[in-house]
Amino acid sequence: MSETSDIDFGPLKGLIGVWRGEEGVDIAPDPDGKETNPFFEEITFSVVGGVTNAESQNLAAIHYHQIVTRKSDGKVFHNETGYWMWDAEANTVMHSLTIPRGVCLLAGGTYNGEVDRDGRVIIEVSATMDDEKWKIIQSPFMLEKARTTEFRHKVIVGDGRLTYAETMMVDIYGKIFEHTDQNELTLV
Ligand code: HEM
After folding, report:
1. Is 141 helix (H, G, I), strand (E, B) or coil?
2. Is residue 55 part of a domain?
3. What is the spatial distance between Cα 86 and Cα 92, in angstroms, rounded to a whole number?
4. 62-83: per-residue pLDDT in tens?
5. Distance from first CA to last CA of the chain, Å, rounded?
6. What letter would DSSP give residue 112?
7. How far away, in angstroms, is 155 Cα from ligand 1 center?
8. Is the model's pTM score more than 0.90?
């Protein structure tokens, strides 16, 4: 780990801080079809610092913790943590996450200066079950009963706003379900 002041966080820089969003929408699998859950959430992104691998790869790392509450009953129904990492030399963003269902993954993507019309940074990462590089790992139970085969996550951040949309393809109840979550958050 190294001092944080001289670290290049690249496209991840704008994430650092505490964010809240009130208008989240979750579409989740249900034995009878699907359930739609409006939610609010808080995500805290905190600086970890610089990390060196094999004395040659330099990463800038940010830790995050996401706590999501269902509006209908006021209960936390999703708790997720992991890291966002930036490899400036390879123009690569990495996103690791773990959820307490026995599922974790390492998603990756390249970043080459993509911004939207307002100049906000657009970050996209993905992982699949079978990819050699960016991969999903899950428990034997989940592999058999609720297998996540694909993960895609798009984040747009800038001007104190963070918008995200993520899709998880889940093989559950005898079909492939498109489990999605989206929200827009503001910097607290
Ligand atoms: C804001 C983010 C998320 C929310 C609010 C959310 C919410 C939910 C809900 C409500 C269910 C239905 C089962 C239940 O009621 O407990 C579910 C199922 C599931 N979620 Fe998520 N989820 C989120 C993100 C993720 C992510 C990132 C993954 C994996 C990469 C994931 C994987 C799964 C899987 C595999 C299931 C099937 C398990 C089951 O329905 O019994 N979810 N999620």
Report:
1. helix
2. yes
3. 6
4. 999 999 999 999 999 999 999 9
5. 28
6. S
7. 18
8. yes
The per-residue pLDDT for 134 is 98
CA distance 8 to 21: 27
Q: Which atom of ligand 1 is nearest to the CA of 166?
A: 27
Query: 10 Å Cβ neighbour count for 125?
Result: 25
Output the domain CATH number for residue 157.
Answer: 2.40.128.20
Domain count of the fold of the chain: 1
Q: Does residue 181 have its Cβ closer than 6 Å to ligand 1?
A: yes
| Angular region, 91: left φ>0, alpha ψ -120 to 50, beta rest | left
Residue linked to tokens 């379900």: 177
The parent domain of residue 103 ranges over 10-180
| Substitution site in 179, 181, 184 for ligand 1 pocket (most atoms within 8 Å of beta carbon) | 179
Closest CA to 27 of 180, 148, 175: 180
Per-residue confidence band for 2, with pLDDT thresholds at 50, 70 and 90: low
State whether the beta carbon of 40 lies less than 6 angstroms from ligand 1: no
Q: Whose CA is nearest to atom 1 of ligand 1?
A: 181
